[in-house]
Automatic annotation (TrEMBL):
<keyword id="KW-0378">Hydrolase</keyword>
<comment type="function">
    <text>Removes the formyl group from the N-terminal Met of newly synthesized proteins. Requires at least a dipeptide for an efficient rate of reaction. N-terminal L-methionine is a prerequisite for activity but the enzyme has broad specificity at other positions.</text>
</comment>
<dbReference type="Pfam" id="PF01327">
    <property type="entry name" value="Pep_deformylase"/>
</dbReference>
<feature type="binding site">
    <location>
        <position position="136"/>
    </location>
    <ligand>
        <name>Fe cation</name>
    </ligand>
</feature>
<keyword id="KW-0408">Iron</keyword>
<dbReference type="InterPro" id="IPR023635">
    <property type="entry name" value="Peptide_deformylase"/>
</dbReference>
<protein>
    <recommendedName>
        <fullName>Peptide deformylase</fullName>
        <ecNumber>3.5.1.88</ecNumber>
    </recommendedName>
</protein>
<feature type="active site">
    <location>
        <position position="137"/>
    </location>
</feature>
<keyword id="KW-0648">Protein biosynthesis</keyword>
<keyword id="KW-0479">Metal-binding</keyword>
<comment type="similarity">
    <text>Belongs to the polypeptide deformylase family.</text>
</comment>
<feature type="binding site">
    <location>
        <position position="140"/>
    </location>
    <ligand>
        <name>Fe cation</name>
    </ligand>
</feature>
<dbReference type="GO" id="GO:0042586">
    <property type="term" value="F:peptide deformylase activity"/>
</dbReference>
<feature type="binding site">
    <location>
        <position position="94"/>
    </location>
    <ligand>
        <name>Fe cation</name>
    </ligand>
</feature>
Amino acid sequence: MTIKPLVLLPDPILRQPSLPVERFDDALSRFADDMLETMYEAPGIGLAAVQIGETRRVITIDIADKEEGRAPQVFINPVIVSRSDDVGTYEEGCLSIPDYFAEVERPARVTVTYQDLTGADREIEAEGLLATCLQHEIDHLDGVLFIDHISKLKRDMVVRKFTKLARQRLTA
């Protein structure tokens, strides 16, 4: 397994829609393993392929408590097919926007269809943190960041900060 470098805001690839996965093979399984290892190393609870520079509709999630051990989940070509009317609010962060957190309101429950690593069709009903994480990562696959769900003023401040940091990295 290989830990991949994370793509950071303002990299334009984060705004590109990801393409469906069509081949379910050993290479896809290895890619998912690399994503999980990268997510754990960061550390984070979710990762979309685009966050390591691959515009493929693949996400990894593990919301297990540290004491429980790891409970990795891989979702290929996930689609939200239903959302609850009631909402929940979580403080969200993002591995592509390090050290920035904001309260985000999202539907409290979602139903997601997806494929597993063998290509088998699956469906999951999620609520709470898992529902939030699924929505956050699926947003990534559509070129949407969690800062798109906060006020324009706060979003613009974050983008300016990370654009400045990116310029500093280039000149260093």
